[in-house]
User: What shape does this take?
Amino acid sequence: MANLITPGNGILYMKVGTHAQETLEDIIKRKSQEIKDTGYGLWGYGGNTCHPASMVQPFAKAFREAGKPIHLCMESMDSKHFAEPLCAAEFSVDGIRWEKIPDAIEVRGSRYALVIDEILEDDFRLPLNMTRVPVGPSAGRLGSRYINGRVDKACLEVLGQPELANIEEPALERQISLVAELKAPYAVFLRNYR
Assistant: This one.
């Protein structure tokens, strides 16, 4: 894949692993087939750091209006997510109007989902000190200071150069192994599990 670490690019960073009792390898295989069958996939997740309406959608729309794609950059991690593997039956862009999720798509054990196009294996290091949070209450915060502790996902903008600081930084780089491009409507709400 072309170099995603280009100043001005939008990246949605996320740690990924076993989810809803399914290995990452199995998830990738299933999502690749779903994309082949329907033209898109729904990559499920939880937590409010990447809330669909207040974070991901405004972030993605701003980059699209600037003519730039938004890529989901995923760091593999050991995970023991044992939630019930129930599949969402409906999705909504705004939380008001709901649509049926196609039978060919399974999005398991999640409150939200990113809308993606093609999952690719990749291998590069994401320098978090060259990123900044562009939206929400943490706007302006350096990625290397934002992604730590329990924060495992973030909307980020790539900067022109690393920010140097005289304070001790947490891990400055993250190993990315999977990439997917987000497509409109970028992120959705999920409900009615089957």
Observations:
- The first strand starts at residue 10 and ends at 16.
- Strands lie at 10-16, 41-45, 70-76, 88-92, 99-100, 112-127, 131-132, 153-158, 173-193.
- Residues 24-38 form the longest helix (15 residues).
- The mean pLDDT is 89.
